[in-house]
DNA sequence: ATAGGGTTAG
């Protein structure tokens, strides 16, 4: 472009920068800008806004504000696009208060007229920062002004309300937006359907789906997957299968989420053979994934961390652990730093392959790499240690979790119980169960069923010799209660 | 189609 005659315009250079940003190569875009700038290419306010956006997306909003100086130096006025970008940058950098301040300043000093992108940026920023109710109030405020929130802003708040367990408020907001003449779309409905299912409100979910149909909003793959998941979580695999059937009748293909969900469902109700079959029908696709990866490299598209993690996942699921390790080294050589997800995947693969010792070594090496294990990772390694009978070590990790900023969750206790019961360590399971209750959690379906089975087995055997485990009766009855509840 | 925005499922 630099050698072309006539010279490309600022518009052409901006198109180039935009394309690089779309590929998420923000640092590359910034380097390119520096280089262009030094070579005297034209710079417009569009260019500068692209640069600010790059800094924001790299969590360097501070540098973004520094670019504002260039605006004034060149006699450009920052406009609504520039300010909206900066507000987004502040939210991305967790500077919620500053973001709110800047927004208020825009209004108070009339620096620019906010538009629907600005509104969405503020609403979304607040929701993502966990300030759902502030966002909700602000939405109500905007409704009374000339700045009208669009369907995306409503969707964001409705989804956040559902996630924060305020499903009735979400339903009210849904009614309100319809009342205001803003048509909910499939995303709006999916959020609320999911919210209702999460709280077992099947009747309401069903009514809502009827309303969707009435409003001519057609169900999509995500809607069906939400329903498949809801049935699976209830152990109603047959009904989940029916949903998939209906989905296919409508010429919609189940996707990878549908499969995973179903595999979980089958495992939950103990139909391991079906889960296995479904799972076996999938890994063949890894070869396709690898092929795509090679094509990608041939096309000079730079694979990112997510690409590597995805392929690593494929290798681990296929128990190709050695290949997974060499893959890890390849990504390091390419300068792609593995993150905690990379190691979670690898350690999960090692554990599944019965290589707990190696998994533990990798796990212990994480702090030197500057990586802090998350709850998920603790759960993987603790569950696996329990299953291998290394209960003491697992307990040490439980204590370690409590001390670090990584509190055990319900799943932590469940994996421990699953693990120790597989080794028939009933007393250990009982201790864990008590601790679990103390922490305000309850056992999941698998823990409860396994406990019941083991207790009944002990009951049969001890009855013969006239020995009774002290808490036997209460344990059996509580285990039965879980089972009934399920 | 020169710059800024978003949401739902595993």
Describe the structure.
73% of the residues lie in helices and 0% in strands. 33% of the residues are buried. The chain has helices spanning 10-22, 26-38, 45-57, 61-73, 80-92, 96-108, 116-128, 132-143, 151-163, 167-179, 186-198, 202-214, 221-233, 237-249, 256-268, 272-280, 285-298, 305-317, 321-333, 340-352, 356-365, 375-387, 391-403, 410-422, 426-438, 445-465, 472-485. Among the domains are: 1-112, Tetratricopeptide repeat domain (Serine Threonine Protein Phosphatase 5, Tetratricopeptide repeat); 283-364, Alpha Horseshoe (Serine Threonine Protein Phosphatase 5, Tetratricopeptide repeat), CATH 1.25.40.10; 373-486, Serine Threonine Protein Phosphatase 5, Tetratricopeptide repeat (Alpha Horseshoe), CATH 1.25.40.10. The protein is mostly helical. It binds one DNA strand of 10 nucleotides through helix 1, helix 3, helix 5, helix 7 and helix 9. PPR repeats lie at residues 150-184, 185-219, 220-254, 255-285, 304-338, 339-373, 374-408, 409-443. Keywords: Repeat. Belongs to the PPR family. P subfamily. InterPro entries: PPR_rpt (IPR002885), TPR-like_helical_dom_sf (IPR011990).
In short, what is this structure?
The protein is mainly alpha-helical. The chain contains 27 helices and no strands.
Total beta strands: 0
Determine the fraction of residues in helical runs and give it as a percent range: over 70%
Order of helices and strands: HHHHHHHHHHHHHHHHHHHHHHHHHHH
Number of helices: 27
CATH class of one domain: Mainly Alpha
Which sheet architecture does the biggest sheet show?
none
Any idea what the radius of gyration is?
27 Å
- End-to-end separation in angstroms reads 66 Å
> Could you name the ranges where pLDDT drops below 50 across 5 or more consecutive residues?
none
Question: What's the assembly state of these chains?
Answer: single chain
By helix and strand content, what is the structural category?
Answer: mainly alpha
Architecture of one domain, according to CATH? Alpha Horseshoe
Family: Belongs to the PPR family. P subfamily.
Protein name: Pentatricopeptide repeat-containing protein, mitochondrial
Keywords: Repeat
């Amino acid at each position: 472009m630099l050698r072309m005659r006539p010279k490309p315009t600022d518009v052409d250079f901006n198109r180039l920068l935009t394309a690089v940003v779309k590929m998420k190569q923000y640092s590359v875009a910034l380097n390119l800008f520096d280089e262009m700038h030094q070579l005297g290419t034209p710079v417009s306010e569009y260019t500068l806004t692209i640069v600010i956006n790059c800094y924001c997306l790299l969590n360097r909003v501070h540098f973004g504000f520094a670019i504002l100086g260039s605006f004034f130096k060149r006699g450009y006025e920052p406009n609504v696009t520039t300010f909206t970008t900066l507000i987004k940058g502040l939210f991305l950098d967790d500077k919620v208060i500053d973001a709110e301040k800047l927004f208020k300043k825009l209004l108070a000093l009339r620096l620019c007229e906010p538009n629907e992108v600005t509104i969405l940026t503020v609403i979304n920023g607040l929701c993502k920062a966990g300030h759902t109710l502030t966002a909700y109030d602000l939405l109500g405020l905007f409704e009374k002004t000339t700045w009208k929130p669009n369907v995306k802003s409503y969707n964001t708040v409705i989804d956040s309300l559902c996630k924060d367990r305020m499903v009735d408020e979400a339903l009210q907001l849904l009614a309100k937006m319809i009342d205001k003449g803003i048509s909910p779309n499939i995303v709006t409905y999916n959020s609320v359907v999911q919210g209702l299912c999460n709280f077992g409100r099947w009747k309401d979910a069903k009514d809502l789906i009827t309303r969707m149909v009435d409003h001519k909003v057609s169900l999509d793959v995500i809607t069906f997957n939400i329903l498949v998941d809801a049935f699976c979580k209830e152990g109603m695999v047959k009904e989940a299968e029916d949903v998939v059937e209906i989905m296919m009748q409508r010429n919609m293909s189940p996707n990878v989420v549908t499969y995973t969900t179903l595999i979980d469902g089958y495992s939950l109700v103990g139909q391991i053979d079906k889960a296995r079959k479904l799972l076996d029908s999938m890994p063949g696709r890894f070869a396709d994934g690898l092929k795509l990866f090679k094509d990608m490299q041939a096309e000079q598209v730079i694979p990112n961390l997510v690409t590597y993690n995805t392929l690593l996942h494929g290798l681990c699921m296929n128990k190709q652990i050695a290949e997974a390790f060499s893959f890890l080294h390849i990504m390091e050589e390419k300068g792609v730093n593995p993150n905690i997800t990379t190691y979670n995947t690898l350690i999960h693969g090692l554990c599944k392959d019965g290589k707990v010792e190696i998994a533990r070594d990798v796990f212990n090496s994480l702090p030197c790499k500057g990586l802090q294990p998350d709850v998920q990772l603790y759960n993987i390694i603790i569950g696996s240690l329990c299953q291998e009978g290394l209960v003491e070590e697992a307990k040490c990790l439980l204590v370690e979790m409590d001390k670090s900023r990584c509190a055990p969750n319900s799943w932590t206790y469940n994996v421990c119980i699953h693990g120790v019961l597989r080794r028939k360590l009933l007393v250990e399971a009982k201790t864990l169960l008590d601790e679990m209750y103390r922490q305000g959690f309850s056992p999941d379906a698998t823990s409860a069923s396994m406990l019941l089975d083991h207790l009944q087995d002990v009951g049969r055997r001890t009855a013969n010799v006239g020995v009774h485990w002290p808490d036997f009766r209460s344990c059996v009855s509580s285990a039965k209660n879980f089972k009934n509840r399920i």
